[in-house]
Amino acid sequence: MRKTGLLALVGGLVLGLAAVCVAADTKDAPAAPPKAAAAAANNDASSITVYVTETGKSYHADGCKFLAKSKKATTLAQVAKDGLSPCSVCKPPQYVFATGTDKDKNKLYHLAACKTAKGTQAVMSLEAATLAGFAPCADCKAPLMVFVTDSGKSYHRAECTTLANSKSKTGMLLEDAKKSYKPCGTCKPPE
Q1: Considering only CA atoms, which of 44, 45, 39 is closest in space to residue 159?
Q2: Which of 40, 86, 173, 184 is found 20 to 30 A from 97 (Cα to Cα)?
Q3: How many angstroms separate the CA atoms of 134 and 99, rounded?
Q4: By C-alpha distance, which of 69, 33, 39, 36 is closest to 51?
């Protein structure tokens, strides 16, 4: 009875593999802020739409100039499976591979070519992995995501208390955030 109830629950949620893996692997992880947990569930790689062209090796965000002649909708999970790279011009959502914990019990995410990634890998958006408490793998130099608000001038870690009262926050790659924002003095994200 219990197994049947669990299967019905998982099937009814339609959150996909990434959200299920996040839920199953949060026992030893620090709790994500309530807003972050909800956002992570909504950033499931199988529900994020991105676009590809007939001949390209990259995937794109809607409106990218490279979609002018050919445009086919797909999911972030599918482009991960196909091994496509994000467009460097439109910077669509990026996928990562989330794994279990390392020797220090840190939950890690990796790039596709990472040789140190071990265990079951779930495809997640970079934002979902960050909000769920996963850290970037240092070996594969996985990108770091930080968060900004509409009215702020600083970038923050996902767990920053300054973000807790913000009605809107946007995830962006650290390299992009450093161009227009300064690091938060409270959470002290990387510079």
Answers
A1: 39
A2: 184
A3: 9
A4: 69
- Per-residue burial over 72-111, b if 16 or more Cβ lie within 10 Å, else e, is eebbbbbbbeeebebbeebebbbbbbbbeeeeeeebbbbb
pLDDT tens, residue by residue, 62-113: 999 999 999 999 999 999 999 999 999 999 999 998 887 767 677 888 888 8
Structure token pair of residue 34: 């309530």
- Classify 148 as helix, strand or coil: strand
Tell me the per-residue pLDDT of 33-51, one tens digit each, with 9 for 90 and over.
Answer: 333 333 334 557 888 999 9
Stated as kind and residue range, the H or E segment containing 145 is: strand 145-149
CA-to-CA distance for 52 and 93, rounded, in angstroms?
Answer: 13
